[in-house]
Design goal:
This protein has 276 residues and is mainly alpha-helical. Helix content is 61%, strand content 6%.
């Protein structure tokens, strides 16, 4: 057996570098309060088949503050870190790796994962993402759109949508803030297949119709995000198969419920009902 083959067996299964880092990150995101380094390393070895400790620590460094530059061991100078994870050193104890609680970092991480069919749903279901959505995203909605999500059936339905479906969260981050005049300056960046039919004719007037306060605003935002989600699920069968039929039927029912409810109170939406 050649030396190269022996080295490969020592390292364990070989994955493309980006895939390995993504899988390691998804494991770490299950521990929003942190996990001791030996426990995380053990999970990486057992679940991902990566056995070489040096390689694992290198991947963790890349996901954290970066690797030390060669020749500068005495200086805390690092490069290339994503800052998705934070390493907390403890005197006389094991290092702890914690997902970064900064909301800006979370948004970068979300935009990285939410557009990838194989990664979006696992990312959404991590304990870290669920916590960040609960603690920060709902606050973002209240500030960005002037909505009250403290109570009510419509508010709970919107929260459930954003906790479960990757498309809803991704498109929320791309929606513009509504001006006091009810106008929008930026159209959301959506796939090309949406633009002709849905972007100018459907999404733009819907966003413009969002009131500043009240139940209607929550229902309109739910309608916008659930419509994007249903379209994307139709375009991606692999993604759609990650949800059971009962969940999808419920989503379609809530989408139609919001549409019919708003249509009875908003002229701009009445003209759009036939397009869905």
């Amino acid at each position: 057996m050649g030396r190269k083959k022996k080295d490969e067996e020592k390292r364990g299964r070989k994955h493309p570098e980006g895939v390995t880092k993504n899988n390691i990150l998804l494991l770490a995101l299950e521990y929003p309060d942190g996990i001791e380094e030996p426990d995380l390393v053990e999970q990486i070895q057992n679940k991902l088949g990566i056995t070489e400790l040096k390689g694992i620590k290198g991947h963790l460094a890349d996901l954290g503050e970066g690797r030390k530059k060669p020749g500068r061991e005495k200086i805390n100078t690092r490069k290339g870190g994503k800052h998705y994870l934070i390493k907390v050193a403890q005197l006389g104890k094991e290092n702890i790796w914690t997902p970064n609680p900064d909301f800006g970092i979370f948004q970068k991480m979300a935009l990285k994962f939410l557009g990838k069919v194989d990664l979006a749903v696992p990312f959404m279901r991590t304990e870290y993402t669920q916590r960040m959505v609960n603690e920060h995203v709902f606050d973002l909605i209240e500030k960005k759109f002037g909505m009250d999500l403290s109570n009510g059936e419509s508010a709970e339905e919107l929260k459930d949508l954003l906790l479960k479906y990757p498309s809803a969260l991704r498109y929320l981050f791309s929606l513009p803030k509504i001006t006091e005049e009810g106008e929008i300056d930026v159209i959301p960046d959506v796939p090309g297949s949406f633009k002709g039919t849905y972007l100018g004719h459907f999404i733009s007037p819907l966003i413009s119709a969002i009131p500043k306060r009240g139940k209607d605003s929550v229902e309109v935002l739910h309608l916008v995000l659930s419509t994007f989600t249903l379209i994307e699920l139709d375009l991606n069968p692999k993604w759609r198969n990650m949800f059971d039929e009962e969940e999808l039927a419920k989503l379609k029912g809530l989408n139609y419920k919001a549409l019919t409810s708003l249509s009875s109170r908003s002229g701009v939406l009445e003209n759009l009902k036939g397009d869905l």
